[in-house]
């Protein structure tokens, strides 16, 4: 069939030109010596003026890491990573001590401007109509390579009692909170990549919302890898104290490079009694070029702990970037009546490999979870949903609903669903639904017969497919995500 | 100039010739019925006119207002005024019918260099047309054809036909899967759209549709050729004698 062939040909021609964030910022930077050793860990800790307990924590993780092996169970293939050939720390060289946003290197501000990230405290995403006087405010923490360069709206948040700052500052300014919670959800011994992160993480965001406080604005972190051969290992810790609420957004981009770059982040969320955390990600790391060269290896551990009763953690992710994605944002449903949610759109094109999903671990009574996963595979990509739902023997009345839908565009890509379900008590109710479909030539013809171009037709069908998940994103991000989805699939059909 | 001129059209699918030097001329204001047994090439003809991928045109041409239709993409043909009402309209989950209609209509208008409809104007237009076709508002909010009954799907096709105001409407087996009441509603919708500037080609296996939609011309197809043409009485004749008589002629 000609159109099928054309579709496939276009997909084959898919080019990196569509990655619009592939530029590099020329800026002087300060790096740790290449490679990983105890000295590297000490170097990073010293750079951050960390207290001794923190250094010891890192060293403990490093020694543990030496005994661990890289996991191989995911459905991804990549050449062996040489962990001694990576820079573990890179920071823009400060011209002087920063005291306000105005003193940030203009080159970095320009970078964020190009990315559309508002670092000036006007913080309104373009293109979103807001009633006068009610402009949506988003506080942003921008992480450039290994350090946080700017956090906006600090004062306004402070008034509400919300702490939102780079984690390196939090270690110095709020050691009691960091000590109590860091590693309490993802322990230093958790897995190869998380342990590596524990040893060498350089920055990230820290959020604490005090009891009963509803965070007055969306919090957002923007991650940018700029330096060559540099890994990014950020660490995010969010604590929602009793009865509080916070919504947090995360975005990521990187320049186009021939070599692969490693991103091994850890995100820990803790929700105490009656608290709610909503965590949204729009991940658009550089995916590699048309031959599958370059791109980010995204090996990320994200886990939320519904520690208190009636607590709720909700993950929403739109994943379009990275050469390889290995991530399973999870919820530990420890508190009775707690609730975990996972909404995901994972798009793979070109040679991208995605192995992503979630874990819902039901420990408390009457805990509920909901998983909606939408995988879209185009080009020669492989897209796997991997999920684990378990009910502990004491988790009576646990309920889960899972729906995994995959959409294939063309005939050189693959979609896979690997669900693991374990119920250790008889009162648990788990439901699992899965579908795989193809954008059929009949649907495309129907749409084009009504006047839509092939590209518009695919966009329409895909947007219909992901609608349930897009609705979960904060409005400002939903607009951005919708654009991103169409960009990611540009050229995927004829 | 005729609106549609199919000249000596030869079409193959996977090296097997389906249409053999088929010719058909349709003028503005006319309604042509194309009848014939299953596999005679009726649907193939409608698909090739609309530009469905998968068919190889090995000879002949199709002119639409004198322009070479075969050189155009399906969406260009739609913008020029070619509309195909599908025998089996597809479902598009998650895309609200209303949204689909607006996206499609505006895409066509944009391609013709016309201004896009504003939301209130569009809504008013759709509501008026929907009302005349007995289509409830609730149906417009649902995903395109998702969970629609056979009758609803066909009415949705006619709704689009009314909305896009095409110059040429091709109705492929509009009566399939419809009971007599649903058929009557659909036929009324089609008759309301007959106009001096518009031509229609109605493809059907059975004569009964032509009791409701009265054709100006009837063509009988068999084995990829038009084997007989005549006035509306030809349909009645066929009803009595069947298609078998044409087997030898083809």
Summarize the structure.
The complex is a heterodimer of chains A (494) and B (250). Chain A has helices spanning 2-13, 38-47, 52-66, 106-115, 154-160, 167-173, 175-181, 192-200, 441-449, 454-470, 475-488, and strands at residues 29-31, 90-92, 138-144, 147-151, 163-166, 205-209, 218-224, 235-240, 245-253, 260-263, 266-271, 276-283, 295-306, 312-319, 324-327, 330-333, 339-348, 353-362, 368-377, 382-391, 399-408, 414-423, 429-438.
Compile the SSE list and pairings.
The complex is a heterodimer of chains A (494) and B (250).
Chain A: H1 2-13, E1 29-31, H2 38-47, H3 52-66, E2 90-92, H4 106-115, E3 138-144, E4 147-151, H5 154-160, E5 163-166, H6 167-173, H7 175-181, H8 192-200, E6 205-209, E7 218-224, E8 235-240, E9 245-253, E10 260-263, E11 266-271, E12 276-283, E13 295-306, E14 312-319, E15 324-327, E16 330-333, E17 339-348, E18 353-362, E19 368-377, E20 382-391, E21 399-408, E22 414-423, E23 429-438, H9 441-449, H10 454-470, H11 475-488
Parallel strand pairs in A: 3-7, 6-8, 7-9, 8-11, 9-12, 10-13, 11-13, 12-14, 13-15, 13-16, 14-17, 15-18, 16-18, 17-19, 18-20, 19-21, 20-22, 21-23
Antiparallel strand pairs in A: 1-2, 3-4, 5-6
Helix pairs in contact in A: 2-3, 3-8, 6-7, 9-10, 10-11
Chain B: E1 4-13, E2 16-26, E3 31-35, H1 42-50, E4 56-64, E5 67-68, H2 74-80, E6 82-85, E7 92-96, H3 97-111, H4 119-132, H5 137-141, E8 143-144, H6 150-164, E9 168-172, H7 180-192, E10 199-204, E11 217-222, E12 225-230, H8 233-241, H9 246-249
Parallel strand pairs in B: 3-10, 3-11, 6-9, 9-10
Antiparallel strand pairs in B: 1-2, 1-4, 4-5, 7-8, 11-12
Helix pairs in contact in B: 2-3, 6-7
């Amino acid at each position: 069939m000609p159109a099928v062939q054309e579709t496939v040909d276009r997909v084959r021609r898919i080019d990196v030109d569509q990655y619009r964030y592939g530029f590099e910022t020329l800026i002087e930077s300060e790096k740790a010596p290449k490679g990983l050793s105890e000295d590297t860990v000490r170097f990073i800790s010293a750079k951050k003026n960390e207290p001794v307990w923190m250094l010891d924590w890192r060293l403990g993780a490093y020694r543990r890491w030496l005994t661990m092996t890289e996991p191989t169970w995911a459905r991804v293939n990549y050449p062996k990573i040489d962990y001694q050939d990576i820079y573990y720390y890179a920071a823009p060289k400060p011209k002087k001590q920063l005291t306000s946003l105005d003193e940030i290197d203009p080159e970095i501000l320009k970078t964020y401007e190009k990315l559309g990230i508002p670092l000036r405290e006007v913080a309104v995403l373009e293109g979103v109509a807001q009633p006068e006087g009610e402009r949506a405010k988003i506080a942003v923490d921008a992480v450039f390579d290994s350090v946080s360069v700017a956090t906006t709206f600090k004062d306004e948040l402070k008034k509400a009692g919300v702490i939102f700052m780079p984690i390196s500052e939090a270690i110095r300014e709020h050691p009691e909170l960091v000590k109590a919670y860091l590693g309490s959800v993802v322990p230093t011994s958790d897995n190869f990549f998380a342990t590596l992160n524990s040893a060498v993480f350089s920055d990230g965001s820290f959020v604490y919302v005090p009891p009963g406080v509803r965070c007055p604005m969306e919090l957002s972190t923007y991650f940018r890898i700029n330096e060559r051969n540099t890994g990014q290992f950020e660490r995010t810790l969010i604590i929602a104290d009793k009865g509080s609420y916070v919504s947090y957004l995360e975005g990521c981009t990187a320049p186009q490079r021939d070599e692969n770059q490693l991103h091994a982040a850890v995100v820990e969320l803790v929700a105490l009694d009656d608290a709610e955390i909503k965590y949204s990600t729009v991940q658009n790391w550089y995916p590699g070029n048309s031959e599958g060269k370059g791109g980010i290896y995204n090996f990320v551990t994200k886990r939320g702990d519904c520690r208190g009763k009636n607590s709720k953690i909700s993950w929403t992710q739109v994943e379009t970037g990275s050469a390889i994605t290995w991530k399973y944002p999870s919820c530990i449903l420890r508190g009775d009546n707690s609730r975990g949610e996972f909404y995901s759109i994972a798009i793979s094109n070109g040679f991208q490999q995605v192995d992503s999903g979630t874990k819902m671990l039901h420990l408390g009574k009457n805990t509920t979870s909901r998983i909606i996963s939408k995988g879209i595979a185009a080009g020669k990509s492989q897209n796997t949903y991997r999920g684990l739902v378990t009910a502990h023997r004491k988790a009576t009345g646990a309920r889960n609903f899972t729906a995994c839908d995959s959409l294939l565009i063309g005939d050189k890509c693959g979609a896979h669903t690997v669900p693991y379900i374990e119920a250790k008590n008889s009162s648990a109710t788990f439901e699992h639904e899965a579908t795989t479909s193809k954008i059929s030539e009949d649907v495309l013809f129907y749409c084009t017969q009504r006047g839509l171009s092939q590209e518009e037709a695919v966009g329409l069908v895909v947007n219909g497919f992901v609608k349930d998940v897009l609705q979960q994103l904060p409005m400002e991000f939903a607009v951005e995500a919708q654009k991103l989805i169409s960009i990611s699939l540009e050229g995927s059909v004829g | 100039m005729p609106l549609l001129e199919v000249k000596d059209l030869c079409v193959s699918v996977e090296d097997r010739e389906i249409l053999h030097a088929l010719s058909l001329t349709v003028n503005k204001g006319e309604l042509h019925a194309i009848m014939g047994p299953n596999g005679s090439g009726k649907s193939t003809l409608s698909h090739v006119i609309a530009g469905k991928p998968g068919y190889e045109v090995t000879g002949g041409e199709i002119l639409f207002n004198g322009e070479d239709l075969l050189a155009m993409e399906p969406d260009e043909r739609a913008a020029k005024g070619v509309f195909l009402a599908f025998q089996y309209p597809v479902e598009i989950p998650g895309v609200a019918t209303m949204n689909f209609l607006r996206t499609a209509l505006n895409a066509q208008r944009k391609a013709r260099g016309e201004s896009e409809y504003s939301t209130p104007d569009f809504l008013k237009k759709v509501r008026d047309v929907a009302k005349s076709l007995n289509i409830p508002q609730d149906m417009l909010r649902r995903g395109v054809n998702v969970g629609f009954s056979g009758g609803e799907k066909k009415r949705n096709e006619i709704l689009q036909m009314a909305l896009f105001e095409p110059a040429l409407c091709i109705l492929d087996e509009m009566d399939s899967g419809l009971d007599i009441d649903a058929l009557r509603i659909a036929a009324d919708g089609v008759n309301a759209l007959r106009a001096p500037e518009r031509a229609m080609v109605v493809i059907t296996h059975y004569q009964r549709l032509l009791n409701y939609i009265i054709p100006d011309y009837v063509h009988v197809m068999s084995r990829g050729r038009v084997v007989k043409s005549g006035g509306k009485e030809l349909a009645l004749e066929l009803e009595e004698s069947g298609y078998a008589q044409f087997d030898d002629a083809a």
